[in-house]
Amino acid sequence: MSHRELDDMLGKGWRKPAFIKNPFLRWALLLGFFAYLVAAFKTIEVDWGRVYEGLDRGWAFVLAFTSPDFISRWSDIWSGLLESIVMTVAASVVGILISIPIGLGAARNIAPLPIYMICRGIVAISRALQEIIVAILLVAIFGFGPLAGFLTLSFATIGFLSKLLAEDIEAMDKVQAEAIKASGARWPQWINYGVQPQVMPRLVGLSMYRIDINFRESAILGLVGAGGIGATLNTAFDRYEYDTAAAILILIIGIVMALEYLSGIIRARVQ
Amino acid sequence: MLRLQKLTKTYKTGDQALKAIDLEVPKGQVLALIGPSGAGKSTMIRCVNRLVEPTSGGVLLDDVDLTKLGSGALRKARREMGMIFQEYALVERLTVMENVLSGRLGYLGFWRSFLRRYPQSDVDEAFRLLDRVGLLHMADKRADELSGGQRQRVGICRALIQNPKLLLVDEPTASLDPKTSRQIMRLITELCQERGLAAIINIHDVALAQMFVPRVVGLRFGEIVYDGLPTGLTPEKLTEIYGEEDWEATIEKVDEDEDVEAAE
Amino acid sequence: MPILERDDAQIWRRRTTGQSLVRWFGWLLGVAIFVYCWQLISKSTTWFFVWDAPRIANDIWTRATPPKWGYITQLGRPIWDTLNIATLGTIIALFLAVPVAFLAARNTTPSALFIRPIALLVIVSTRSINSLIWALLLIAIIGPGVFAGVIAIAIRSIGFCAKLLYEAIEEIDHTQVEAITATGASRWQVMAYGIVPQILPAFAGIAVFRWDINIRESTVLGLVGAGGIGLQLSASLNVLAWPQVSLILIVILVAVMISEWVSAKVRGAII
After folding, report:
1. pLDDT one-digit tens code per residue, B142-180
2. B78 vs C: CB within 8 A
3. Does B260 score more than 60 pLDDT?
4. CB distance from B53 to chain C under 8 Å?
5. Tens of pLDDT, residues C230-240
6. B133 in A contact zone (CB under 8 Å)
């Protein structure tokens, strides 16, 4: 039997089975994708003359990185940077504190359905709204300044952290939690002994990651008037002061790198 | 055909895995390499095809010293040596057929292999080998859908389609159940006989080695401490290789197992 | 020792006195920093506006509702541009991220001493800086428009994609690579047969994940003049046309939800 099969197959070519079995669908997808690419490229209007002119300025900017100017606008840079850091710290603290109860509520395996629905709703809203849009609205409501930025970052932190925390809780080991429940623990005790030890390392890791993101976001909130280094950066670009802009960007990159390094150490310690 | 001359491997950590090994494997001979974990079995067969770079000494395949070859010539030499791995080492997200055909990579240019345009003779040979190990119907399955024994058979096909002179086999049965282990060992030794291949089989299961191979080499701390017939492996010899243990049970079990197998 | 001896009785403590002190001091320091940050924010906030906020929010709400549905006819082109910015930006980024990732991964880099640090520097500097800042920079260099947006998104995504990809490359199963090497395959064949199949799912996942994020980011790029629907948002905000603003926000929300749905579907199909 099997030898007949072999004889049938010998001499015949072999092709790798296609990822999408249906040839019609496969070609339609491929053609559609290429058609889209062509259409997309056609509608982008590029003023190549302008781009060519810009190359000089681009090069000037690259050169600026070799001689960044920290000094001439140092007081602006410093106040902007301080404001960014302050917003990051305050928003991270508040955001993390609020996202813990919401994260607990958004985990289906420990929260009752009505609370679950409410918490998931909050998470969904917070995640759907882009930080910068929230910042625009909050600036319109609360006026210019770091308060709007602080509120924006706190709000964004809640959506990010609660969702990941809830997913982590939903994926935790049931047996450990049941063992604590079986000992007759109350709900808070159960959370403290059965759930918290399991999700704590990841919560710390995620919090560190979120602080990192918050700092990076705080650098752009200034563009819409919500405080931080963004305003200074925007001014530097407007005045074509590339060396100052380069200095600010180097500071941002440096701080982000330092934060990543720090979070690496902290994550290694809590694991 | 294969000759190891004073083959030495010292790792960067200072561990001496191989201490001036001398060994000769004639054409068509299957030998088993036994010894405790860390004795240098894996290092030795990896030094032969230079997956691990030997520190000093020579590896002579048909009088060509492999340790002196440049990267192009080394690739050509590797085609002559098929390798079979402990955890099968199939590329799990490729199909069975692609895994088998990957044994021909050394004979093929990059673009042909990239576009999967293998010569018809290779494709036919792959079908024949898959048929030989009873997996022809699985040709277009993905490798990670197969059971352990099936994967190891695909691994064997991949080594054989290279049309090698020598098989390097690294713990082929370590992740398999006892019955499958025997089937795989039998398959390997049968195929070696059919094709007149020499083979070095790394194996920690002494009983299995005794069942299937005519020559056993015992390795301890990077040195050869036994080289001879499987029947010569007395409890004293095993103690020398592995250290103190009650060996009578192991040796006797072989015979019992043989009876069970015969009864099946 | 966390066991105290008092009146011949052993009292179990979780931490020693020293450990407790350090912890308390840590908490105190944390609270002090937070209070300090809060004071800085509070100082640069006009509290009169904040107390007035409910009234202003209410005012904006009444102006913004109902959204000006008819305005949607003018949003077709901006939406198309937004989609193009995200998609083309992602595609360009992926093309550039793949080589960077291979150069950055410990097991594939040609030189761990020279090339790897450069690749890592590219990764950290492109991903530390938000796409809005990249857009700002590019607009200063090559002028406003969709093209600047595409490039900004592409640059920002290089670091993100390359980082995730090189982590995936470092996690591959080495024996599969060894097995392909042992057949006498060349360097590129080992790449194509041993490494690429192992990282392909991760690659596809990263691509779709980043595309989803880029859709969100490209909706706001217009705020600084880099094309897309953000341009309309910014124009409407400038003339305080709140009914248009609310419609645009709804459109953005829907777009974000669709992209998230698509990305979840595709990732589900791959894994």
Report:
1. 888 898 889 999 999 999 999 899 999 998 888 888 888
2. yes
3. no
4. no
5. 888 888 888 88
6. no
**Complex prediction ipTM:** 0.84
Q: How close is the nearest chain C Cα to the Cα of A4, in Å?
A: 31
Domains observed in chain C: 3-64 (no CATH), 74-270 (1.10.3720.10)
As a whole number, mean pLDDT of residues C5-13 equals: 69
Question: Whole-angstrom distance between the N-terminal and C-terminal Cα of chain C?
Answer: 49
> CB-CB: which of A5, A15, A17 is closest to B136?
A5
The CA-based angle B37-B43-B46, given to 5 degrees, is 135
Q: What is the side-by-side strand order in the sheet with B2-10?
A: B16-25, B2-10, B56-61, B64-65
Most confident of A187-191, C13-17, C29-33: C29-33
Residue C271 confidence (pLDDT) above 80: no
Nearest C-alpha of chain A: how many angstroms from C150?
9
Interface mutation vs chain C, best among A20, A41, A47, A89, most C CBs within 10 Å: A89
User: Which residue in A has a C-alpha nearest to residue C58's C-alpha?
Assistant: A141
> Which CATH number applies to A76-270?
1.10.3720.10
For B95, which residue in chain C has the nearest alpha carbon?
A: C197
Instruction: For the domain covering B2-263, report its CATH number.
Output: 3.40.50.300
Exposure on the CB side of residue C227, measured as CA atoms within 13 A: 29
Q: Least CA distance to C188: which residue of chain B?
A: B110
Name residues of chain A where pLDDT drops below 50: 1-2
Tokens linked to B255: 């015979």
**Cis omega (within 30 of 0) on the bond before C66?**
yes
